[in-house]
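[stage:ingest] chain + small molecule (4'-deoxy-4'-aminopyridoxal-5'-phosphate)
[stage:ingest] validated
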Amino acid sequence: MTKSEKLFERAVKRIPGGVNSPVRAYGSIGEAPRFIDRADGCYIYDVDGNRYIDYIDSWGPMILGHNFPAIRESVLKACENGLSFGCATEIEVEMAEFICERIPHVDMIRMVNSGTEAVMSAIRVARGFTGKNKIIKFAGCYHGHSDAMLVSAGSGVMTSGVPDSAGVPKGCTEDTMLAVYNDIGSVKALFEQADGQVAAVIVEAVGANMGVVPPCEGFLEGLRALCDQYHALLIFDEVITGFRLAFGGAAQYFGVTPDLVTYGKIIGAGMPVGAYGGRRDVMELVSPAGKVYQAGTLSGNPVAMAAGLTQLKYLYDHQEIYKELEAKGQMLYGGMEKIAREKGLKVQMNHISSLGSLFFTGQPVVDYVSAKTSDTKAFAEYFKKMLKMGIHMAPSQFEAMFLSAAHTDEIIMETLDAVKLVL
Ligand code: PMP
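[stage:predict] done
[stage:export] tokens:
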């Protein structure tokens, strides 16, 4: 028995499913998850001493690679002054200024502790601002686990094969309307049906929780136009894409301006941070400035802010990283696609910049329904064999692969050699 297996045996007795977040459990893979001891650069090491090339990157935050020295040092330095005060700090002001001065569509921003909280709060303020209740979301988009968003939520819910969560009262999702990703007609139909009651459309500007599904041409622009026409707010959930596709996230990448944006992952560099921000007239409604209540004991935590701000400053000063990630993405995902094609396999390699998903289906994957045509058993075999070859990817067909600045061309070539053997 490996140490990971022994730990998992202990874990399942005391932690539901043995993990603190579902996809970690390797649910559809049928093995004990690898328990991780440490990570550095593009490598992650398990408790049995195995080294893997890591394409999870903590699900996105580690865009500079694991254990990045400047971030580690900023955290250690912040710790010297105490871990939390529950009072206002200078670094929170610096963080807010840093983002607002560099992201044109963010006039004001509020820090929270997770992507879930960011979305939940953004939706509340959108409702408060518009005085309307209905929210349009897309099947297969994940926006965290708040009640209203747990409808066809993609990600872990999709992996577990459970369409929606138990324990969510009907009333909580009554105002959540479900549209089809990449189908602007479906959104238009909902707007018409809702009779002026739509507060906001929330979207992952790049779907990354039903596997990676980029927006088709005109889709995001179409959402912008519909929101304007019906006086609803457009919320980009940039928890994955923020500071990843470009410093200004998907909004900058695609040139479409949302009213509100949510962040997570990269903004905290591995510490638990989320944020929501956007138009001043909307954000001024947030408590205590306005009547929309939202709070957090540990929000804007100084250690977390130190980590996040160091990472954001580094990214802003080294924006060549975004071009490099594009090239690395082309090399890795383009390479995987070529291998699959040469072998005559029925797969789809969806990718954009540093994000990619290999779908085991013969059908182009453009939305939730087409993503679900994937052969998850074939994916599980692929995952297990890649892991044996020392490549650590998300143990789910419906999660993204994440490239970081620490993945060198040599590492990518090594990965492609493994893909060639495994496929
Ligand atoms: N939105 C998106 C797009 C996400 O990918 C996630 C998490 N993967 C969330 C929201 C929720 O973030 P958290 O897990 O930090 O609550």
